[in-house]
Every structure is written in structure tokens, then in C-alpha cells.
Specification:
With 285 residues, the protein is mainly β. It has one helix spanning 12-18; strands at 44-50, 56-61, 69-75, 82-88, 93-96, 104-113, 116-117, 124-127, 137-145, 148-154, 162-169, 176-182, 187-190, 199-206, 241-247, 260-271, 274-282. Among the domains are: 44-127, Sandwich (Immunoglobulin-like); 137-206, Immunoglobulins (Immunoglobulin-like); 241-282, no CATH class. It contains one helix and 17 strands. The strands form five sheets. Strands 3, 4, 6, 7 and 8 form a five-stranded antiparallel beta sheet that branches. The radius of gyration is 36 Å and the shape is elongated. The protein starts with 11 loop residues before the first helix and ends with a strand.
């Protein structure tokens, strides 16, 4: 008859205590739940428009329905991007203020939520407007015949692109623009007037921001056609609006009186999801 040794005799309680594969269970904690969130879709069609010498207005298309907001970054051509603003959901415009005049700024934007950030869409840029030129002074009007009045004034600015001249008929009349001159011009001859009528005049200096130079060099005499693709000097598309284009002769044989300024409308037309820019020239200063 087999004998059981003392070492092989063990109680149930001792077995449970010595078996490391047996767990002791207690009450459960509270329930917790979470739902993973996908990052939002990237915004698109970011544009930047100079509103003044210290402000640029941004606009974009919101393509997501689950964003918490948008983060906007800015840089200068020589700098690196830094975040300048965080705005709420469903916002599609932003005004960047306290900027420096005549300075190029680049922008990019992305949407975000608890799931992360979207990609950046297109980068855009524009230049703040220059500081306004000083007001001309000492305007005089001198009769030079039965149908001609000569104007003269003092140019007090160094950054004007030209002067706009207005006149009205009689003290109760309404001022209307009659001419636009180039920079540094200090006189104008108004002809084709009516004998015995009193004319009132006023003049102001103006300037604009340079978007792009299309030709900078000598070209032969004759008829020429230029094409502009609606992009600035950095190759970035610019916002729709009214722009001035100017022919300014340079060199020792140039004639400053030949300077011509015209207006052009840059229109944005969307067709099948594509943005098309069309320019139309407007005669007149």
C-alpha cells in the first residue's frame, strides 16, 4: 500500500495561496468611453488682400464640418512661419493688422480638432499698401485764353505714383476727375473750356503697391501685346479686383509726359471647380 509523504499533503487554502495563476477579483471601476475623431478636411482657396498700409484681409473656403477652429501662420520672404492667430469653427475671414507698409507677407492656414490638424492648402501672399503720399500744396489756376486754364502746384511727397486732378463748374457744382498725371508732375493745362464760366480745381497725390513688373528693358518701336496670368512677383495668385497698369519710359531718351496709366478689372470666374482669372482693360485714369 502506497504511502503519501508529508510533502505531498497540502490543504486547499495553501494551494490557492501558493498558485500564482489564480487571481483575486474585486468590484469594477466606473465605465469610460471615447470615440476617435478624424482630422478635419483642409480649407482651400486662401486669398490675401491688402486693405491698407497696415492691414491685410484673409479669406478661405471651409471644407470641413468637424473642425474646432483654424490656425493661421504668417511670414515675410526672409522669415519662417509663426502662428499669429487661432480662430473658431466656421469662420472664413481674418484681418491681420498692425503690419508694416510696403511689406510682403506670406500666409497659410489649417483646420484642427481633437483628432489632429488638416494639411495646409495653398500658400498665398500680398504686399501692404505704401504710406500715403504727402498732400500737394499751393495750387494755382491761371487763365491762359478763352478756353484754357493752366494749373500749378507744389509736390510735397517723394513716393507718389501720380496726381489726380478734379474740377467742378461753379461753386455749386460737383467735382469730377478730369486727368491723371505721372509722378513728380507739378502742372497741368486744362483746355476745351467755356468762355465766361468759373471753374474750381483740386488735386491730390496717389500711390499704389507694385504687383508685378511685366517688362523691364528695351523693346522695339511698334505694337506689342503682353499677357499677365494674375500672379504677383512671387508667382502667387492675387485677389480679384481693380488694378492699375502703367507704362513708364526710362533712360536718357525717355519722355515723362508719355507715362500712361489705365485701369484693369481682374475677375474670378469659377467653372467646374476651376478658378479662371480674366482681365479687362478700362480706359481712363
Amino acid at each position: 500500500m502506497a504511502q503519501t509523504s508529508h510533502d505531498s499533503t497540502i490543504s486547499l487554502s495553501e494551494k490557492l495561496a501558493n498558485n500564482t495563476n489564480v487571481d483575486s477579483y474585486w468590484a469594477y471601476s466606473n465605465d469610460a468611453n471615447a470615440t476617435p475623431t478624424a482630422p478635419p478636411a483642409a480649407p482651400s482657396s486662401l486669398t490675401a488682400t491688402a486693405a491698407s498700409n497696415t492691414q491685410i484681409n484673409l479669406a478661405w473656403t471651409d471644407n470641413s464640418s468637424n473642425e474646432t477652429g483654424f490656425k493661421i501662420k504668417r511670414k515675410t520672404p526672409e522669415g519662417t512661419y509663426a502662428e499669429i492667430a487661432t480662430i473658431g469653427a466656421n469662420v472664413t475671414i481674418f484681418s491681420d493688422t498692425s503690419l508694416t507698409a510696403s511689406t510682403v507677407y506670406f500666409y497659410r492656414i489649417r483646420a484642427f480638432n481633437t483628432g489632429g490638424h488638416s494639411d495646409y492648402p495653398n500658400e498665398t501672399s500680398t504686399t501692404t499698401l505704401p504710406n500715403a503720399p504727402a498732400v500737394p500744396s499751393s495750387l494755382t489756376a491761371t487763365v491762359a485764353g478763352s478756353s484754357q486754364i493752366n494749373l500749378a502746384w507744389v509736390d510735397n511727397s517723394s513716393n507718389e505714383d501720380g496726381f489726380k486732378i478734379e474740377h467742378k463748374i461753379g461753386a455749386a457744382g460737383t467735382y469730377a476727375k478730369i486727368a491723371t498725371t505721372g509722378a513728380n508732375v507739378t502742372s497741368f493745362v486744362n483746355t476745351g473750356l467755356t468762355d465766361g464760366v468759373t471753374y474750381f480745381y483740386r488735386v491730390r497725390a496717389f500711390n499704389t503697391q507694385l504687383v508685378r513688373t511685366l517688362v523691364d528693358g528695351e523693346i522695339s518701336a511698334g505694337r506689342h501685346q503682353l499677357h499677365w496670368n494674375g500672379r504677383n512677383q512671387f508667382g502667387k495668385p492675387i485677389a480679384a479686383g481693380v488694378y492699375l497698369y502703367q507704362i513708364v519710359p526710362q533712360g536718357q531718351n525717355s519722355n515723362s509726359a508719355f507715362t500712361q496709366t489705365r485701369r484693369m478689372v481682374l475677375a474670378e470666374i469659377r467653372s467646374n471647380g476651376l478658378k479662371l482669372c480674366m482681365g479687362s482693360s478700362l480706359l481712363g485714369g
